[in-house]
UniProtKB/TrEMBL annotation:
PROSITE patterns: ABC_TM1 (PS50928). Pfam families: BPD_transp_1, OppC_N. Keywords: Cell membrane, Membrane, Transmembrane, Transmembrane helix, Transport. Residues 121-324 form the ABC transmembrane type-1 domain. GO terms for biological process: transmembrane transport. It is found in: Cell membrane. It is a multi-pass membrane protein. The chain crosses the membrane at residues 47-69, 117-148, 160-183, 195-217, 248-268, 304-324. It comes from Nocardioides turkmenicus. This is ABC transporter permease. Residues 1-26 are annotated as: Disordered. Belongs to the binding-protein-dependent transport system permease family.
Length: 337
C-alpha cells in the first residue's frame, strides 16, 4: 500500500485481510462524549478560563477567611485608633497602608481594611450562593411539574410564576423587614444578629428569584418529556416523582449549573443594594455590601477606602457573569449567543 493511502479501523484490504490499526490511529478516530467536547470548548475560551480562575480564588478566600480569623491572621473587628488623626481619618496616603495593614485601615474605627474586605467576601458569597441554590431548587421543581403535567396545572403554575415576577422584591424586602426578621428569630431561635439577618435576606431573595429558573426549566421539560426514555418510564408505570427526579432532572444539570453561576453575581449585587437600604447584615459584621455602604461617608476624604470594595465587587460580579456566559456557550454551542 502506498504511503498516501488511508485505512480506517475495520476496513479490509483488497485481499480480504484487515490491517492492524496503530493505537494512535484508533485514538484519532475515537468519539468524544458531550462532556469532553464541552470541556474542550471551555478550555479554548481564554476569557472564561481567566474568569474561572478568579472565581476559584474568590471561593477559596471565602472558605479560608473564618479559619484565618480564628487563627488571628485576620482581625476584622480590632480597633486601631492610634492610626487615625484628629478627624478619625487614617494618617498617611492610601488609607494608612503599611506592612501590617496592606490595604490601610477603616476611617472612624481604625479596623484593618483588608481583613474586613476578605471576611466580607465570606458572608456575601454565603448569602448569594444559598439564595441561588434555593432559587434553582424552587424554580426547578415548579418548572418540572408545570412542563410535564400540562393542562390546568401548567396554567396555574405559570400564572403563579407571572404573579410572583410582578412583585417588586425590593419594596417587599423593605416592607417585610421587621416582621420577617422577627419570624426568622422565632422559627430558628436565633437572636437579632448577623446570622438571623443573613437568613432573612437569603430567604427573601430566593422567594422572589426562582421565577426565571421555573420558566427556563419548563421550556426544557416540554422538549424532554417527548423523548423515548420518558415515554418508556410512563409505559412501565413509573410514579411521577420518579419521572420528575430520576428521568427528567438529570437531563437539566447543564442549564441549572449555568443559572446558578448567573444568579450569583445578581445576588451579590442585590446584597450590596440591600445593605445600603439597611436590610441586609449590619455592621460590625462585614459584608461587601455594608463595607461599601460605610465607605460612602468617606468618598471625598479617603477615596482609596471607597474604591477598594467597589472594585472588589465589580471584579467578582464580572467574573461570575463571564463564567456563566462561557459555561452556557460550552454546554449549549448551538444556542443563541
Amino acid at each position: 500500500m502506498s504511503e498516501s493511502a488511508t485505512v480506517f479501523e475495520g476496513e479490509e484490504l483488497s485481499g480480504g485481510s484487515t490491517p492492524p490499526v496503530a493505537p494512535g490511529e484508533a485514538k484519532a478516530i475515537a468519539g468524544k462524549s458531550p462532556m469532553k467536547l464541552a470541556m474542550m470548548r471551555l478550555r479554548k475560551d481564554k476569557l472564561t478560563m481567566v474568569s474561572l480562575t478568579v472565581v476559584v480564588l474568590v471561593v477559596v478566600a471565602a472558605v479560608l477567611a473564618p479559619l484565618l480569623v480564628k487563627m488571628g491572621v485576620l482581625d476584622p473587628f480590632g480597633y486601631n485608633q492610634e492610626l487615625l488623626d484628629a478627624n478619625t481619618i487614617p494618617e498617611g496616603g492610601w488609607s494608612g497602608a503599611s506592612a501590617s495593614h496592606p490595604l490601610g485601615v477603616e476611617p472612624g474605627t481604625g479596623r484593618d481594611a483588608m481583613s474586613r474586605f476578605w471576611y466580607g467576601i465570606t458572608f456575601s458569597l454565603m448569602i448569594a450562593l444559598t439564595a441561588a441554590i434555593l432559587s434553582v431548587v424552587i424554580g426547578a421543581v415548579i418548572g418540572i411539574i408545570a412542563g410535564f403535567s400540562g393542562g390546568w396545572l401548567d396554567a396555574v403554575l405559570s400564572r403563579f410564576t407571572d404573579l410572583t415576577l410582578s412583585f417588586p422584591s425590593t419594596l417587599m424586602l423593605l416592607a417585610l423587614s421587621a416582621l420577617g426578621l422577627e419570624l426568622v428569630q422565632q422559627v430558628t431561635g436565633l437572636p437579632n444578629g448577623p446570622l438571623a439577618q443573613g437568613i432573612y435576606c437569603t430567604v427573601v431573595l430566593a422567594l422572589f428569584g426562582w421565577t426565571s429558573t421555573a420558566r427556563v426549566v419548563r421550556g426544557q421539560v416540554l422538549s424532554i418529556k417527548q423523548r423515548e426514555f420518558v415515554e418508556a418510564a410512563i409505559v412501565l408505570g413509573a410514579s411521577k416523582p420518579r419521572i420528575y427526579f430520576k428521568e427528567i432532572l438529570p437531563n437539566l444539570w447543564a442549564p441549572l449549573l449555568v443559572l446558578v453561576t448567573l444568579m450569583m453575581p445578581a445576588y451579590i449585587s442585590a446584597e450590596a443594594a440591600l445593605s445600603y437600604l439597611q436590610v441586609s447584615v449590619k455592621p460590625p459584621t462585614p459584608t461587601l455590601g455594608n463595607v461599601l455602604t460605610d465607605s460612602l461617608k468617606y468618598a471625598q476624604v479617603d477615596p482609596f477606602y471607597f474604591f477598594m470594595p467597589a472594585i472588589l465587587i465589580a471584579i467578582i460580579v464580572i467574573s461570575f457573569n463571564l463564567l456563566g456566559d462561557g459555561l452556557r456557550d460550552a454546554l449549549d454551542p448551538k444556542g443563541d449567543r
